[in-house]
Amino acid sequence: MDTSAIMGALWIIISGILVFFMQAGFTLVETGFARSKNAGNIIMKNLMDLIVGSLGFWAIGYTVMYGETIGGFIGTPSLFYNEGADMYNLFFQTVFAATAATIVSGAVAERTKFSTYVIFSFIMTVIIYPIAGHWTWQGEGWLTDLGFVDFAGSSIVHSVGGWAALIGAIMVGPRIGKYKDGVSQAIPGHNLLLGALGVMILWLGWFGFNGGSQLAFGSEEDVIAVGSVLITTNLAAAAGAFAALMYTWLRYGQPDISMTLNGALAGLVCITAGCAAVTPGSATIMGLIAGVVVVMSITFIDEKLKVDDPVGAVSVHGVCGALGTLLIGVFAIDGGLINGGGFALLGVQATGVLAYGTWAIVCSYIVFKILKVTIGLRVSEKEEIEGLDKAEHGIGVYNE
Q1: Residue 160 is part of which domain span?
Q2: How confident is the model at residue 399, as a pLDDT?
Q3: Where does the Ammonium transporter AmtB-like domain start and stop, copy by copy (predicted)?
Q4: Residue 231 domain-assigned?
Q5: How does pLDDT run across 296-328, given as a tens digit for each residue?
Q6: pLDDT-flagged residues of the chain (< 70)
Q7: Considering the domain boundaries, does residue 185 fall inside one?
Q8: Gyration radius from the chain CA atoms
């Protein structure tokens, strides 16, 4: 390997480590936004995303995603990938797969069987996510041929995870006491400090998530590109948090803490697809839009659709992932609507958003349906009231 290739590999490895650390952020966000009696169960679910994701993606998922294409739809699978010169790429893509799986965890928190979740997580990382990734990132996928843009995964990772989370939340049903006479009841998380720390860790990890997706760092062009990606990522996150803060302040009379935190995540998710394709100014506008949309979406899904999503995962990842992917068609420097590109790119982006949404929803429904009629999705009422820590794992997190 020449120096350029070595520098590129080093950047991908460092970025992969940052993305790995995001799993700690997801764990803290979900734990903080849930009740203390379920903290241990949440820790175990997020840990299992890494465990089964690492094993399954290495065993077969990586080749399903990056193997020689079969009709632009799926890679040619092979078992137990072991190409020495490419192992750093396997690591980088593995932590992305674990991220896609863990999005589902928050939406089904506090009432889902641990065994059921582990099985779904495995299927997500070896089938659902890798096939989705093949369509765009393998290089010969059918969406690649259309000119679809998703630089780091607003749709491929986040929307796929978000729509799977929606189906999971619908099928497992709301937590006991969440809706009384058709009216949503607030079930506050037990520790917003944990949630805030989790968001900050995720924000940090996102620099690896988006910056590492340049997949090179061996030339002046790469350095400029990565720097631009880091700036657009950071600005969108800040704008998303600011917009959510101001919107809740104006609407409810107080700046909402949890919504502001989710606003930062919404901005990050929104910019992930287009972080290399838009200007810093456009990234800021995209973040502002996402910060408002995520609050409206969380409220709509909770109060109107009556889908219980304890952490807002569907809105943050599903809705804002789709939003960010579409907005590339508006703001992209090359081909965006406001830059004289017409509606062509917007149409391609809409096609991709629809394809990924349909794929995730259909596959997740099939998997959850099979699990429901076999081992079941939900713990018993007694176990839910007692808390999943004691019921599923025999011990609580906060013990005196």
Answers
A1: 3-73+83-393
A2: 76
A3: 10-395
A4: yes
A5: 999 999 999 999 999 999 999 999 999 999 999
A6: 400
A7: yes
A8: 20
End-to-end CA distance of the chain: 55
User: Which two structure tokens, joined as six digits, stand for 14?
Assistant: 């460092």
DSSP of 171-207: HH-PPTTSEETTEE-----S-HHHHHHHHHHHHHHHH
pTM as predicted? 0.94
N residues, the chain: 400
pLDDT at 22: 96
The Cα 236–Cα 376 span in angstroms is: 40
Tokens 């632009």 correspond to: 72
What does the pLDDT read at residue 220?
Answer: 87
Any domain includes 399: no
Query: Which tokens is 219 given?
Result: 């030339």
Q: Spell out where the chain has E strands.
A: 69-70, 74-75, 179-180, 183-184
CA angle 288, 186, 397 (to 5 degrees): 100
Kindly state the tokens that stand for 351: 């096609």
pLDDT at 400: 58
Q: What is the CATH number of the domain that holds 132?
A: 1.10.3430.10
